[in-house]
Design goal:
seven-stranded parallel β-sheet, globular, 14 helices, alpha/beta, about 15% strand
Length: about 350
C-alpha cells in the first residue's frame, strides 16, 4: 500500500492557526509532522521540538536542530509558517531534503519586521527567494512579498472560517449591547485604545459591556488600566479560549473590535463576521477588502473608535443590518473548507 505523502510543517504548535492548518491537511490525506520551538499536543501530528526561542536572534542558532529534524523526517513537502522565524529556518534547513518549500506569511513578518533594519530587510528578502511559493491572506501582504523578492511566486489563501462552529445567532437572543475583542494583548493590537474608547462609550451607554479574549505580554498593564478607568464591572477578561469558548462569547455579542496598527486579513475579523456581528476595524488595506468604510477608524484613535461604537449602539438596526451583510459575505467567500482545498491543491 502506498504511503500518504509526508508534509512537514514548521510553526508554533501552540498557535491555533497552525493547529487548524495541521488538522485540515491531515483530513485531506497528508501524513503530518511538525517541527516547533513551542510544542503542544496536536492529535495525529508527530512533533520534533527545537530548543526554546526567547529572543528573535535565537532563530539564527536553531538552523542545525532544524536540519537534523528534517533529515530525520524525510518530508515530501516542507511548509513554514511565519517568514522571519520558521521561514528562515526552513530556507536554511530544507535544501538537503530536495523537496519543495512553501512559506505562509502571517502579516507582521513582512509588513513590520523588514522595516526595523536594513539587515532584517535583506534577510527577509533572501528567505522569501528560497521558497517555491509564498502564500498570504491579503493582497497587500503578497505585494509586500513581491516587493522584497521580485519574481517570487505568490498565492492568495486566507485562513477561512469554520462555519459549522462560527455561525450567526438570532439578534434578539443577544443580551443588551455587548462587544468583544479577540486580538492578542500585545502593543500592535491596541487593546489599550479599545479600553479608552470603551470608557467614553460607557459614559453615554452605562449598560454597554466588553469582553476581552486573547492573552499576551500586556496583560498586567491592561488589567491595571481597567481598574484605573473604573471598568471592572463592565469588562470581562476571558484570556485564551478554544473555538467552542470563543463561539460562546461571540454568540452573546453584537459588535467585534479589531484595531491593530498593522495586520493582514484577520481570522478574528472573519470569525466575527461569520457570527453575524458588526465589526469596527482599523483602516488598513486588508480590512478595506472586507469591511465598509464607515466602520474603519485610524489605529490608536480612541475618540474615533468611541464615536463609531456609540453610533452603532444608538442605531442598533444599522448594527444588525451590518452583521447580516457580514455573515452573508463569509458564507459566500470565507468558508475555511474552500480555502484549505485550495491550499491542498497548491
Amino acid at each position: 500500500m502506498t504511503q500518504a505523502p509526508h508534509l512537514v510543517l514548521l510553526g508554533d504548535a501552540i498557535s491555533v492557526h497552525v493547529q487548524r492548518w495541521a488538522a485540515e491537511m491531515r483530513s485531506r490525506g497528508w501524513r503530518l509532522s511538525l517541527v516547533t520551538a513551542r510544542p503542544e499536543l496536536i492529535e495525529g501530528v508527530d512533533q520534533i521540538a527545537l530548543p526554546p526561542v526567547r529572543r528573535s536572534t535565537e532563530w539564527l542558532w536553531r538552523v542545525g536542530a532544524a536540519r537534523r529534524a528534517l533529515a530525520r523526517l524525510q518530508p515530501d513537502l516542507v511548509h513554514a509558517h511565519y517568514v522571519t522565524s520558521y521561514g528562515y529556518l526552513a530556507a536554511r534547513a530544507h535544501r538537503r531534503t530536495g523537496c519543495p518549500l512553501v512559506m505562509t506569511a502571517w502579516g507582521s513578518d513582512l509588513l513590520l519586521t523588514p522595516r526595523e533594519s536594513a539587515l532584517k530587510r535583506r534577510l527577509t528578502a533572501w528567505t522569501l527567494r528560497q521558497a517555491d511559493v509564498v502564500t498570504g491572506d491579503s493582497a497587500d501582504l503578497l505585494a509586500a512579498a513581491r516587493a522584497l523578492a521580485p519574481g517570487v511566486r505568490t498565492r492568495l489563501i486566507h485562513w477561512g472560517v469554520d462555519r459549522a462552529r462560527f455561525a450567526p445567532v438570532a439578534w434578539a437572543d443577544k443580551p443588551g449591547f455587548e462587544a468583544v475583542s479577540l486580538r492578542s494583548w500585545e502593543r500592535n493590537y491596541e487593546i489599550g485604545t479599545i479600553l479608552n474608547a470603551f470608557a467614553q462609550v460607557r459614559a453615554a451607554h452605562p449598560y454597554a459591556r466588553l469582553h476581552l479574549l486573547g492573552g499576551g505580554s500586556q496583560e498586567a498593564a491592561l488589567r491595571a488600566q481597567i481598574e484605573r478607568l473604573a471598568l471592572a464591572d463592565a469588562v470581562q477578561v476571558h484570556g485564551r479560549l478554544d473555538d467552542a469558548g470563543m463561539a460562546a462569547v461571540l454568540a452573546r455579542c453584537k459588535l467585534s473590535i479589531s484595531v491593530p496598527r498593522s495586520d493582514a486579513t484577520s481570522v478574528s475579523v472573519l470569525e466575527s463576521m461569520a457570527c453575524g456581528l458588526a465589526v469596527i476595524a482599523s483602516d488598513l488595506p486588508a480590512n478595506r477588502d472586507w469591511l465598509d468604510a464607515p466602520l474603519l477608524v485610524p489605529a490608536g484613535d480612541a475618540t474615533a473608535l468611541a464615536r463609531v461604537w456609540g453610533g452603532l449602539i444608538d442605531d442598533e438596526a444599522q448594527a444588525r443590518e451590518v452583521g447580516a451583510r457580514n455573515a452573508a459575505r463569509i458564507a459566500q467567500e470565507g468558508d475555511r473548507r474552500v480555502q484549505m482545498d485550495a491550499a491542498d491543491r497548491l
